[in-house]
Amino acid sequence: MSSVRLDSTTQDKLRQMAARKGISVSEVHRQALEQYFERESDLPQKSRYSDIIGIFDSGEANLSTRHKEVFREILNRKYEATQSND
Fold first, then answer.
1. In 3D, which of 17, 41, 43 has the Cα closest to residue 30?
2. What is the pTM of this model?
3. C-alpha distances in angstroms, 11 versus 6, 31, 32, 34, 63?
4. Residue 79 has what pLDDT?
């Protein structure tokens, strides 16, 4: 069992829809949720990082194939900087 809080305008629209279709308010909820689930399951899963992936340009080519090498270089530079500060 679930409950949903709606503003008065949405509640009025819900009741009108149910009356127009000759079904209960609960049935309108069920139908709407089924449509929502079907629509969402057909969409590719979006990562929570989708809005930032690919928006930066490193200026370097072949990072997708050299990512381990580049990461190693970054860590080496960071490690060398830490060592020179000691």
1. 17
2. 0.48
3. 6, 16, 14, 19, 53
4. 80
